[in-house]
Amino acid sequence: DAKTTQPPSMDCAEGRAANLPCNHSTISGNEYVYWYRQIHSQGPQYIIHGLKNNETNEMASLIITEDRKSSTLILPHATLRDTAVYYCIVSRGNFNKFYFGSGTKLNVKP
Amino acid sequence: DVKVTQSSRYLVKRTGEKVFLECVQDMDHENMFWYRQDPGLGLRLIYFSYDVKMKEKGDIPEGYSVSREKKERFSLILESASTNQTSMYLCASSERGNTRTGANVLTFGAGSRLTVL
Prior knowledge:
A: mainly beta, 4-stranded antiparallel β-sheet, 0% helix, B: mainly beta, 7-stranded mixed β-sheet, 11 strands, globular
């Protein structure tokens, strides 16, 4: 599975959009991009995933570049409860393994 | 509400003890996973299972074994616990995979924090 690169930490003001980048330059055609987050002392929580097209759900939006080598997770109106570590993962799904890196620690500030 | 349940939230064991970490899911998922999480290292895959009695090694299987006798239950076993196995252990499950989209999603338990003295 392709490796991902994320910044170790980011700050965001409450109420503003949080844009979390992820590089996955070695992604292959059948690999999906997944985003999870982990709030302190809890298990990771699924946010969103996509293959080629941009995706949106009630939690976030996922923007994938046309060459699929990078993506951005957007939290449109960050709240203090969005403070967490956000993981970007690339995987083929099905029987394949999900590899988590160190993620991005998002600090949402009042 | 569907969930993945890990039997113990906190455990303290002594070096050399045999340790069982149990995980049960009620979603009829085919795939189950064990990860450990350490500061600065993210989540590392220990083992995963895609069917009853089937298992595959992840990145760091040394010192661990697993058992999947029933679909809903996936156990992680530390045959002889050592201090370097002090960690947070996370269990997850997923469907086999959407054969149309090829995607699947992990659901995690709350974690088991193991301390080996």
